[in-house]
Amino acid sequence: MKxxxxxxxxxxxxxxxxxxxxxxxxxxxxxxxxxxxxxxxxLGLHTADNFDKVLAxxxxxxxxxxIGKEKFLYASQVHSGxxxxxxxxxxxxxxxxxxxxxxxxxxALPGICLMxxxxxxxxxxxxxxxxxxxxxxxxxxxxxxxxxxxxxxxAMVGHFGCDPADILAGIGPSIGPCCYEVGEDVTEFVTxxxxxxxxxxxxxxxxxxxxxxxxxxxxxxxxxxDVLPENIETSALCTMCHSETFFSSRASxxxxxxxxxxxxxx
Length: 266
Ligand SMILES: [Zn+2]
Hints:
Elements: E1 2-3, E2 11-12, H1 14-17, E3 22-26, H2 51-65, E4 72-74, E5 83-86, H3 88-92, H4 95-98, E6 104-107, E7 113-118, E8 122-128, E9 133-139, H5 141-145, H6 148-160, E10 168-171, H7 184-194, E11 201-202, E12 211-212, H8 214-224, E13 232-234, E14 259-265
Parallel strand pairs: 4-7, 5-6, 10-13
Antiparallel strand pairs: 1-2, 3-14, 6-9, 7-14, 8-9, 8-10, 11-12
The structure holds zinc ion.
């Protein structure tokens, strides 16, 4: 990932950054107006932060990216495997203000900024430069075992005729395999969903609790659906190890803000 030059300390993927007429970014905690524990660029209206401060932060992001405030699509994320297509009908039905309940959105509409908000869950951006289709994914452990990344690629293929070999993917900062200790509730789902724990769960020794590698699990869903490994960029930045830069739910004991990844076709 690389830093952009603005005042919000936004980050970009190298692969998506090379595409003309595509705006994308990962936000950090920097440059906003929210007070601790939401300091400072908290974009989550569903947190207990001051409403006006979150709106001010969203306005700062709109200004820095040059995208109109009313063009951002923030979903109401529910840890599902569900994918929603954003077309002109959805826009006409007010999808931009209604926060649809979904964990992935896909669009071919220019000017719409698809957003995913996280604090330890994995934000994933996709773009097909041939069909000009963009997508964002919210993949926490539940979304990951529900195979939301597979579902999104399959929807891009089925609805828009995308060739997976054309799709570029960026896997953003999230809690990493270094820190993501999980209990039996999660490990059972992992075994059921993937049929194996090899690569998914890592144990330092026989007595330690397993760590779930969300980066591997989502990379695997991409390559299993024929996205090329060389088209996948993983930031490999752990939010818990870098909680001064990114909001981390675990590092903060659950009360914190949300950072975001967004993508907009110009
Ligand atoms: Zn870590």
